[in-house]
Amino acid sequence: MDKGRQGAGGEPWLPTGGLALRRAVEELSGTSLLKAILELPNARQVVEEMAPTDLFWIVKKIGEEDSSQLLEMASTEQWQHLVDLEGWSRDRVHLDAVRAWLKRLQAADAERLALWLLQEGDLLARFFLGRLLDVTLRDHDTDEVPAGFFSLDGV
Prior knowledge:
Layout: H1 18-27, H2 30-38, H3 43-49, H4 52-62, H5 68-73, H6 76-87, E1 88-89, E2 92-93, H7 95-118, H8 122-132
Antiparallel strand pairs: 1-2
Helix pairs in contact: 1-4, 4-6, 6-7, 7-8
């Protein structure tokens, strides 16, 4: 592949699907791949139209922590697929993997992540938080919060 190749209008060249995209992912470095995608005049549309599995491997190639800009452009359906790919193994949830993906999505677009978790991702949010949080009722006769807990209102 010609790494300096450009499209007809001088824009960066990047195949947008299928086998050609997979070859580009294999041949370009993560940095070059990210740059090629971000320089496309229709980058958001290209990312949104990627097959979720292609997006997953592109994120892996670029590096999960360096992919915030791509994740910000991805659809919530793609987000769900990314979380599912590493977050589940058969019927088992890998909380560390889910936590890592939620952290990446938060870095990409915290407001949209919150809306997604309250709407389409509500089952994931409830399951995830249910595994991580331990909610306890404190005794109202004392002002003390049990050791290891905190109160949102500080009382």
